[in-house]
Specification:
alpha/beta; disordered C terminus; 494 residues; 3 domains; Rossmann fold; TIM Barrel
Length: 494
């Protein structure tokens, strides 16, 4: 904990000390003795949350208050006292025991958003509270907006949306009226947190203001996406006051309704929303409309949504340097939004797209639209193609042990997987073993992302910086997987 405190103080001057995570009272006392060495100007908030309130402290309320008093004496300017303890303590007792510190009175709702936020806020403000905090699990952005409305109404309020769906809202909370937000040094203390290192160096959270332009990517799932790292690196390289966030979106209407309240200026679209987003747009680029899938949206004046498709650009840049597309016969696996972009890109370049999908009717519909042919899945191993393109999510992180095709079905000169994480999917490994040329989805990912950046900003994308940050992220992930891979036992004869 001392090591984490030193790390935190290198990045921020406001640190919460979760004393309840320490083993016992003697360990809390030993830790607090190191606080006189904390640099001047730092603000420390002591928390010793009891188990009844979602913390780890198992002692009595009297011991909890004694530890907080000890923390104040050691130099903590603030302490967090949960509503469960406040309800059982006369204000006079708190005044006597904790008079030297400022009180942040908190309420935590780990399962769902409470029905009456205003009543809870009024109760938290009662007594000697100097500031209040409401942390609540949010199943939607709509829930998070309720917390923000509370923070905007009342000064000295900390609003903490919890849960994976609320992660971008947590990052935007300072913009929305919250006094501050939380980021763990190492140990997450609530769902939906982003580490301090990531908050500072990917999202530049300490620099967000009401003028910061907000972009993001919507999808379900979304945790695998490297778009935030890539686009935020691009904004940093061009010194733009902008941030790009991951939105886990189960309900498109919930996200669309949140665009204006959260000040979103544009967003990327990934699975499974590339086709569904069309019904929410006010306008669409003719090529994207023809493809029937959108992966890029610009928010124009009056909150109007206009859609584009940059997957098309990514496909062409990835393939045209390797094979002559005109006259080539290319098999496309899948019939969703990514597959549609691949099919139209190939058709426009003079190639003959062949569509195979687990849903034969969707494959036939895409083949008709793109002027190609539908191939039954069982037929794949009996035909030859100039290239095979995987436009399904099969093999994507974390399900990296899967492949849409077996090695015997790879009758082609080149295999291109639109998946970029992992960089070398099982499909590509199978192709490489057979001596077939492979193309990673990283190339398409960077190409389509740089086109998105240019659509949103009107400036040339820093492609090299975007490619570098993606490569570094994938290198780290691959190194970790190698280091954690179980070692085979030696079979040396005894």
């Amino acid at each position: 904990m001392r090591r984490q405190l030193r790390t935190a103080l290198r990045e921020t001057r406001t640190v919460e000390l979760r004393l309840d995570w320490l083993r016992d009272g003697s360990e809390i006392s030993r830790f607090l003795k190191c606080l006189p060495s904390v640099p001047r100007g730092a603000t420390l908030l002591a928390t010793c949350r009891r188990r009844e309130a979602g913390g780890r402290f198992v002692g009595t309320i009297a011991k909890q208050l004694a530890h907080l008093a000890e923390a104040i004496a050691a130099g903590c300017q603030w302490y967090d006292l949960e509503i469960e303890t406040v309800r059982q303590c006369p204000p006079e007792l708190l005044q006597v025991l904790l008079a030297g510190g400022n009180q942040l009175t908190s309420a935590h709702f780990f399962d769902a958003m409470p029905k009456n936020l205003q009543r809870i806020a009024n109760e938290l403000s009662h007594g000697r509270s100097d500031a209040i905090k409401v942390a609540a699990h949010c199943n939607s952005l709509r829930d998070a907006r309720k917390l923000f409305a509370l923070a905007r109404k009342r000064k000295n309020t900390v609003a903490v949306p919890m849960g994976d769906a609320a992660l971008p809202a947590r990052l935007l909370s300072i913009r929305q009226g919250s006094a501050f937000t939380y980021a763990p040094v190492e140990n997450a203390t609530a769902p939906g947190q982003v580490s301090l290192d990531e908050a500072k160096h990917v999202y530049r959270l300490d620099r967000l203001t009401r003028r910061t332009r907000v972009y993001g990517v919507i999808g379900h799932p979304i945790a695998h996406s490297l778009s935030p790292q890539m686009q935020n690196a691009a904004f940093a390289a061009r010194r733009m006051d902008a941030v790009y966030l991951p939105f886990l979106v189960r309900d498109l209407r919930d996200f669309v309704d949140s665009i204006e309240p959260l000040g979103i200026n544009g967003f990327s679209v990934t699975l499974p929303h590339k086709e569904k987003i069309l019904r929410h747009l006010d306008g669409c680029d003719p090529l994207a409309a023809k493809i029937g899938a959108v992966n890029t949206v610009v928010v124009r004046g009056g909150g109007k949504l206009f859609g584009y498709n940059t997957d098309y650009v990514g496909v062409l840049r990835s393939l045209e340097r390797r094979i002559p597309l005109r006259g080539s016969r290319v098999l496309i696996l899948g019939a969703g939004g990514a597959a549609r972009a691949v099919a139209f890109a190939l058709a426009q370049s003079g190639a003959s797209p062949c569509i195979a999908a687990r849903n034969p009717e969707r494959a036939k519909a895409l083949a008709r639209a793109a002027g190609g042919e539908a191939i039954s899945w069982s037929q794949i191993g009996h035909e030859f193609f100039d290239a095979i393109v995987n436009a399904t999510p099969v093999g994507m992180h974390p399900n990296i042990a899967t492949s849409p095709l077996d090695a015997r079905e790879l009758n082609c000169r080149l295999v291109f997987d639109t998946i970029y994480r992992p960089r070398m999917t099982k499909l590509l490994r199978l192709a490489k073993r057979r001596g077939i040329e492979t193309v990673s989805g990283v190339e398409m990912f960077v190409a389509q992302g740089s086109a998105q950046f240019e659509i949103w900003t009107g400036e040339r994308a820093p492609v090299d910086a975007m490619r570098r940050v993606v490569a570094r992220a994938l290198d780290r992930e691959e190194t970790f997987l190698v280091q954690t891979k179980p070692q085979r036992k030696s079979r040396t004869a005894r």
